[in-house]
Known about the structure:
Blueprint: H1 19-24, H2 45-51, H3 56-60, H4 63-77, E1 82-83, H5 90-94, E2 99-102, E3 106-109, H6 116-119, H7 131-144, E4 149-154, H8 156-165, H9 173-181, H10 183-207, E5 211-216, H11 224-230, H12 232-242, E6 249-253, H13 260-265, E7 270-272, H14 279-286, E8 291-296, H15 305-318, E9 325-329, H16 339-353
Parallel strand pairs: 1-4, 4-5, 5-6, 6-7, 7-8, 8-9
Antiparallel strand pairs: 2-3
Helix pairs in contact: 2-4, 4-7, 7-10, 8-9, 8-10, 9-10, 10-12, 15-16
Amino acid sequence: MSANDRPVTGQPTATYDSAFLKACRREPVSHTPVWFMRQAGRSLPEYRKVREGVPMLDSCMMPESVTEITLQPVRRHGVDAAVYYSDIVVPLKAIGVELDIKPGVGPVVEHPIRSRADLARLRNLTPEDVPYVTEAVGLLTAELGGTPLIGFAGAPFTLASYLIEGGPSRTYENTKALMYGDPQLWADLMDRLADITIAFLKVQIEAGASAVQLFDSWAGALSPADYRRSALPASAKVFRAVEGYGVPRIHFGVGTGELLGLMGEAGADVVGVDWRVPLDEAARRVGPGKALQGNLDPAILFAPREAVEAKTREVLEAAAGLEGHVFNLGHGVMPTTDPDCLTRLVEYVHTQTAR
């Protein structure tokens, strides 16, 4: 079953004919759907109020907070899809990896993985490890009605990078040293992370998520040859494992202009594009049979309204000939973005693309 088929129940869901899911399936839409990566949180004052005094990972494990934060941008901006509020390291924390998300830094792993003995610490994820996800998705789907919920997970390569480096990195020297120096350990690590990612996505889909996105945030650090050999197989395994659910599968990375064709090859129905490659060129690189998502530069939102609208028109014009297009930023919403600018952007895209 693919994203062009009805859900596994055989019956259309409340979200099935939404503009977002139709665009993912490359079907005609009444307007170009819009959602933003990192829309759930960061720039919203109501988010900061909910999060006050609550550590990031703790907030991801509180179903009522997750529900509220996920709904906030839907209420405020009128986006066409909600994205589940969580973090890519949540499944790692759930299986016992000692890590924390430090403000201003990001995920920090206490004992990085550098050996086969370290690999043994990564056990499989079960639904019982993340009951708060099942509960929160259930609460959300009840509230969202016809608005789709996007579940997500980190791709194996990006998770591996965090685990090996011990935190964010600009050079990935430890990651690449292991990848090149011990290919078998690398392959085993990627396979284990693929299984963890599959389990995490299945929990979200089975609880009611209408689509899923695989974030390979750091895949742009790889050459095409290294991506094909060392990252693509694990991501492809993830996409194959959830194909039977019939929900659209989105694949996104940063700085992946040279990898777009390979990312499409991995099995996604929709390929996310950052702001560095125009969507018409991205379509040429990805090839037919895929919808595209993107790709306004997030920094544009700090410019005057006229400039934002001009750059938005450029994106929409580049997307005019696509089989399917979901409007998004080329990366996540920056924390200091004016929320009103996002609201105006949604309205502008809807107005400009009304059919």
